[in-house]
Amino acid sequence: MSTLLLTGVRPLGGPASDLLVEGGRITRVGEGLAAPEGATVVDGRDQLAVPGLVDAHAHLDKTLWGLPWRPHTAGDGLAALIDNEHRGRAELRRQGVTVAQRATALLGAYVAAGTSHIRSHVDVDTAAGLDSLHGVMEARDAFADRVQVELVAFPQSGLLVRPGTVELLEAAVRAGADLVGGLDPAGFDHRPAEHLDAIFAIAARHGRGLDIHLHDGGELGAFTIDLIIERTRALGLAGMVTISHAFALAEVPGPRLEGLLEGLAGQRISLTTVAPGNRPPLPLARLAAAGVTVGLGCDGIRDLWSPWGDGDLLGRAALLAWRAGARRDQDLAAALELATTGGAGVLGLDGHGLEPGCWADLALVPAATVGEAVVAHPPRSLVLKRGRVVARA
Amino acid sequence: MSTLLLTGVRPLGGPASDLLVEGGRITRVGEGLAAPEGATVVDGRDQLAVPGLVDAHAHLDKTLWGLPWRPHTAGDGLAALIDNEHRGRAELRRQGVTVAQRATALLGAYVAAGTSHIRSHVDVDTAAGLDSLHGVMEARDAFADRVQVELVAFPQSGLLVRPGTVELLEAAVRAGADLVGGLDPAGFDHRPAEHLDAIFAIAARHGRGLDIHLHDGGELGAFTIDLIIERTRALGLAGMVTISHAFALAEVPGPRLEGLLEGLAGQRISLTTVAPGNRPPLPLARLAAAGVTVGLGCDGIRDLWSPWGDGDLLGRAALLAWRAGARRDQDLAAALELATTGGAGVLGLDGHGLEPGCWADLALVPAATVGEAVVAHPPRSLVLKRGRVVARA
Description:
Two copies of one chain form a homodimer. The two termini of chain A are 23 Å apart. Chain A has two domains: 4-51 and 353-392, Urease, subunit C, domain 1, CATH 2.30.40; 53-347, Alpha-Beta Barrel (TIM Barrel). Chain A is of the alpha/beta class and 393 residues long. Helix content of chain A is 36%, strand content 22%. The first copy, chain A, is built from eleven helices and 16 strands.
């Protein structure tokens, strides 16, 4: 790997510094660093540097990115959305549009926006088997030197309501999925304990983590969180479990919330949010105070579920901050932290940041402060992945 | 005025049409129109045309647009925000940065985004008198052929709590303000009936409309709306009154809301919303069903109140739609309608639209449907104001 000297950037809005990058990592940060012989020098003057953006909750296999705009056609409710996706995906297959093509197009957008890591759920069901997994793995491999992607085997069409899916999830893990997923064990699958027992068993058997979609709100969602905490503790999976969405945490009364936070923190269960517009926002300040790690994700991007999204985590941080009424730079910075440090915590990344020793995964943004970077989220002027320039405005 | 033939555009996503523009108005819409001798021909192929965007609630005098990013410094609550603005404005005056300069910079952004009309509130208070009004009028005049601006004399620092302000509002109207403003007659000024009596009296005396800021929520806001309806009826000002924000309508129980909607519709009182992130959204479907006109605004843009905003009404429509959970093209189109037809209704514009006879105020957007135009809100490829090209990508 070549040596690169990035000059005059402002890490997270701090004073201008030079960053020396060797062997893919940041090795020195300081003023007026000399370029080693043979080093490439990149002028980063007046640019704010942010660590590689982390999408902690994506759905690469679902995207229609790069295809013509497709007006949303689904009815209301989860079942209608799932049916609509089955029809839409069948149509795409007839047209010869592959999962790999669509995921590849979206990964290009992610890289241009400065994304260094993505955790993507991938549908596994009895209709398409592991096709989506193989397609996303193909796209992931093609982008291996530009963005790192980990995959969750996701029972989008239900687990126990679709016999054969439990076996498919395990096959997905054998085929290369990094984590085991779940979907509303109570509200959608109707057998919460059995659903969780099945996916925790696969995870424990293969030494993998879990990332469970939980849209169920109020006490039903809180009850499911209790069950997840219980199983995480029983199986010794502390630090390996994520709950995605977890709307219930925004809806239960204060004392109930406190109990849940204690359980989550105790088992180091992390959360992801996609900053939804029409659901109550997660109680982020209380989560932070309780020591619960939260990552940010773009969720599905321009797919059969929703026309929204563009793979820009800075823009998503802006939506999160705007929804919360954030105005001060420190509050805007807190939103960005979910898309950097928070996501890195969810994915368990080592060496994520802008300090010496960290991987040189970063993006330059023409902005004065992190606040401006979030509010305006202008196109990235330069993106480095492990010290290599992978995108430039 | 010159003649212009705009070819192959898709009005609001409809079939490709040519638009003939003569004397500043659209005179013909059809396929394969011949260019009259001497006409300028502009190729609009593959572009979606939207009517001129209308910002029904702006604060041109407050903006820091064009200046370096300024982290937000205010404390919480309305009084802290007002104090913060007084300090910030004094600092700007000391630096020699004028209202006219700042408003001019922002008008440039508005025009580039396809904005044809703006209703701007302008602070009138006992500290700065009519300075802001004169500054904004200067900027407005400089942009007269690119965007039409109407001004509301706005008692930002309070009306009755700041003796002398009532007289200043009347002086503002004499000096050229188009409408009379108000601010939380109950919650901020503490004398709702007297506050409203004072501003309605000025409006009636000068034959002007009113546009009243009403942040007060719940029953206090609903009570104030009752008082506004009562005075509108008593003074025969039907169709000349707007309530801005009107958060209370999102908060009162259904039967109470029904009564308010009947009163608003009966007096043709319009509303504006700025699509706030952290307040409940207005019940837009019920307002539409009741026949109440609603316009969309960007509110203050990158100012001492808030760092948000960029003068793009399409982007603001996206926030409104996203906050409401809109996914279908028709729901996304409804959000855009607030920024076109809705705003035109609030401002009482004639000839706003894309039909023959309308003013040729329009923007071209590289998008397949109105849904895509809202979700992606890409830079406008061309902007016409009264038939003249005023911005181009």
